[in-house]
Amino acid sequence: MSFGFVLGNGVSRLELNLQTLKELGPIYGCNALYREFAPTVLVSTDKPISESIQHSGYASEHRMYTRKPIPGLGAHRVPDDYFGFSSGPIAVALAAIDQNRAVYLIGFDMGPTAGDRFNNVYADTEFYKKSSARPTYTGNWVKQLQRVCKDFPDVGFFRVMGKTTAAIAELRGIKNLAAMQMEDFQNRINNTKDL
Asked: Would you place residue 117 in the very low, low, confident or very high pLDDT band (cuts 50, 70, 90)?
């Protein structure tokens, strides 16, 4: 079975060694992840950061998707079915389109930090809100993830639950989406390599 790993930028993903994941399967990431780690696929939908990434030369050397690629800089256009989606759900869809039969969502915290503040690895950096800001509304991400799961009924999706990952009632009951505790996920990738 092929495994794909989709990295959101919630702080729970800091609990993982990304190099370990890279040995197990393709990694799909979002936005500023490229600053420190080159995933197999990068998705960036917000115009300012997307254009910055493309102008950096990253998209000419790596597989990147955005809504409106700048001609000649190498980025690909987001698939039409997911054109209006946010970066994370698009990355999940691309992992399924690439025929990964099991897709693990890591750092899809979709809730605040312990201090009820903006939950993002890149808070306080260019293109991101301050760490003291209120949490981002996640209702659109929930609806988009529901749609991706429905579009790919033969794919098993697993949302890895870290210390700052919010329980989302609307994601319960989706037949092909399960929650997996971070400790269990880490044990599997570090010891048994059996996902």
From this structure: very high
Q: What is d(CA 131, CA 115) in angstroms, rounded to the nearest whole number?
A: 10
Distances (CA, A) of 26 to 5, 34, 73, 94: 6, 15, 23, 11
Tally of domains within the chain: 1
Q: What helix, strand, coil percent values describe the chain, rounded to 5? A: 35, 15, 45
How far apart are the C-alpha atoms of 195 and 180, rounded to whole Å?
11
The residues, ordered by sequence, that sit 6+ positions from 125 with a Cβ below 8 Å of its Cβ are 32
pLDDT at residue number 115 = 84
Mean model confidence pLDDT for the chain: 95
C-alpha distance from residue 149 to each of 34, 105, 154, 165 (Å): 26, 12, 9, 19
Task: Write the CATH number for 23.
Answer: 3.90.1480
Q: In what order do the strands lie in the sheet with 156-161?
A: 76-77, 63-66, 41-43, 27-30, 3-7, 102-106, 156-161, 177-181
Question: What burial class does residue 162 get, using C-beta atoms within 10 Å of its C-beta: 0-12 exposed, 13-18 middle, 19+ buried?
Answer: buried
